[in-house]
Amino acid sequence: MDLIEGIETRRSCRAYKPDPVPEETVRRILETAKWSPSFGDSQPWEVAVVSGSKKDELIKVLAGLAEAGTPSNPDIPMPKAWPPEVAERMKAHYAHHSAYLGREPGADRQRRGPGRRGPDFYGAPCAVFLFMDKTLTEWSVFDIGLFAQSLILAAHSWGVGSCLQAMMVPYPDAIKEFLGIPETKKLVLGISLGYPDTGSGEYAYKSERIDLDEFVKWYS
How many CB atoms lie within 10 A of CB 211? Predict the structure, then answer.
C-alpha cells in the first residue's frame, strides 16, 4: 500500500488472532520507525518488546494490581479535564462505539479501564512499551509520538494490527521492575501488536473524524 492509503485505512485494532508476530517482522517494523524525525536528531525513544510467556507473566502482574485496587500512578499523568469541544467529541465516540457493539452507553469505557481490557492488551500476542529518560522534556514526548505513528503505520503495511494504549501504562513502576528498566526512565506509552481478527465486531468498528473546516483556519 502507498503512504496515503496506509494513513487513511489504519485503525485501532482491539481484536487479535493468537498467532505470534515473527521477531523478524517486528524488527522490520522498528527499522522503519527509527527513521522518525526528532528534536536535533536526538532519537529519544527506548523500546521494550514483550511477547510469549513473558507477556503472559506481565499481564498477571498488572491484572493483579488492578484487581487489588492498587491506585494507578502513570509517569505521564492522565488528563483530569478536557476542553468542552474535545470532551464532546470523545463522548460521541464512546456512544458510537457502544451502539455499534450493542452495549449500553458507558459500558465501552468501563470495559477498557484498568483490570478489564488494559492489562491484557486486547489479547494481542505482542506488547511494545516506549520509554524515554526522565530528564527529557515535552519535546521528547512529541518525538516519541512521531515514532509511535511511524511504528503503527509500518505495522499496518505488514498486515499487523496495532492499538496505542494509555491503559497499558497505569503501573509504570511494576512494569519497569518486571522488565529490568531503570527508574531513571519514563514509561510513555504501550502499543498492542498482532494479526487482526477481522471476523470480530471490535475489528470492524472504525472511528469517525471531524470535518476539515472544524479544525483548520485559512489565512491569506
Answer: 7
List, for residues 123-148, the tens digit of each pLDDT value.
Answer: 999 999 999 999 999 999 999 999 99
Per-residue model confidence as pLDDT tens digits over 29-86 = 999 999 999 999 999 999 999 999 999 999 999 999 999 999 999 999 999 999 999 9
Opening angle at CA 134, ends 128 and 136, nearest 5: 100
Distance, CA of 6 to CA of 158 (rounded, Å): 11
CA atoms of 114 and 44, how far apart (whole Å): 28
pTM: predicted TM-score of the whole model, two decimal places: 0.90
Residue ranges of domains in the chain, CATH in brackets: 3-78+117-205 (3.40.109.10)
Joined grid coordinates for residue 66: 488492578
Report helix, strand and coil shares of the chain as percent, to nearest 5. Answer: 45, 15, 40
DSSP bridge pairs for 163: 192
Question: CB–CB of 34/160 below 8 Å?
Answer: no
